[in-house]
Design a protein that fits this description.
128 residues, alpha+beta, Nuclear Transport Factor 2, Chain: A, 7-stranded mixed β-sheet, 3 helices, 26% helix
Length: 128
């Protein structure tokens, strides 16, 4: 699996709220850091639990990704997501920093994001 294929599969899993599909994208001992201020979710079970909780109130999820940037053994990619969560429209732009195993699964994910409590389209030139 290439980085671009992985990113597309991650977005599809998020849009479906499919915690099993998301967890399958990671190595058995992967580290998933959803925020610099939270403890990481580790391994398939930890990632699955995080995803089940994080996506449980989400509906109408639309995920878009920018062009990935690779270097130093890592891939970074911007994302822009709109959805309803807990009955409110929200926009969450963010960035994933990924490190992949030789088999194409992710060994480490770090993400940084911001929540805006309304639907907002990406600005011109976003994701390039």
């Amino acid at each position: 699996m290439t980085a671009a294929e992985w990113i597309a599969a991650y977005g599809a899993a998020w849009e479906r709220g499919d915690a099993d599909a998301a967890a399958a994208l990671f190595t058995d001992d992967a580290v998933y850091r959803s925020s610099p201020f939270r403890p990481p979710s580790v391994g398939h079970d930890g990632i699955r639990r995080y995803w089940q909780e994080a996506t449980s109130t989400q509906s109408g999820v639309r995920v878009r990704f920018g062009k990935p940037i690779s270097g130093g053994g890592k891939v970074a990619v911007e994302w822009w997501t709109t959805m309803r969560s807990e009955g409110a429209d929200i926009t969450i732009p963010g960035c994933l920093v990924l490190r992949f195993a030789p088999d194409g699964r992710c060994e480490e994910l770090r993400e940084y994001w911001h929540v805006e409590e309304r639907l907002v389209e990406p600005p011109p030139g976003w994701g390039g």
